[in-house]
Amino acid sequence: MCQLLPEVKDVFNDLADGIRRYEKKTTETRKWDKLNAVIEKVDEQADSIKNKIINNSPDFLKEPLRYALYLKKNNDRTFTGYTGTILAGGSPKEFFDILVALDVLDFSVILIDDILDEAERRANRPAHHRKWGTEKTLSVALYLKSLASKMVLESTVDENTRLRILKVMDDFHAQIYEGQLLDVEYETKNIGRMTENDYLEMIALTTGYQIAGSFKTGGILANANEQILKILEEIGLKFGMAGQIRDDLIDYILDEKYTWKTPMLDFKRNKKRIPLIIAWKNAKENEKEEIRELQNKDRLEEQDHLRIISLVMKPENLTIIEEMIRNLENQAKELAKHSSLTPEGVELLKMLFSLIAGAK
Prior knowledge:
mainly alpha
């Protein structure tokens, strides 16, 4: 899903001890204060628009819609569109309805994703389909998909811009479900035959192209030329893939209150995500057997969680995964270096990657 989650300051250090404690704000965490301030500003404006959507909806739809529109801690798709606009020299505040439409579309994907994953919880509460039932959740998901398009069509930008943005949104929405199908197919694939490239292909189709589309949408709103749009799209792809790798690591952090994720859900479903792929590749036979036994347990206790972390998050495994993120970060920064993107946008991009990869 690739949430920003600024509370998780450095996922690699967070996983080193198994359980991350957030009670005290250390000097080191102040590095992210500037980024947090921008995230909070974007969230405030996005939440205002989301609340208007809820208030203008029929009474019977208000509560299930509200439940759906607050399934993430951050309005991350709005934020990536915001970043793309700034990178291209535009003014995001003029187009906030369209930027929020990117999140509205993402919420429709999340609802369906949770049904497919048989998720019990999301955002520290029952998943939407557990609260409202599968039929109502599917109806809300379809409603949100249409609503996202409607928000673009009813915006004040010119017709050509509206059509270009709708095409971008439809393109990455289709790719998301190509990736979803791959994800489902991979669940039954022998993990010993999974490669890092298989995983990267899947996350490129899901989070990668979705974030790429958000960056490109920001560029379209800023009237960027085709060369800049292509660069924004490539940067967004790298950032989205790096963010999804981080998100797959966060699945192993036990503090659900801060991560807004049910711990170990990917592990239990035998999803072929990068932590498990790397761990399996480097595990001894007795460790592989133990991983299988833990996956088959009906219920995981805290000691099971900690044992899983010790098996999967070995320092050598984390080093490989961190290098994957760093490579994507370096590729994105190289693209930004050789283009006419704004200094303000490049600074914001660097802060975002510091959050994803951990500042060094």
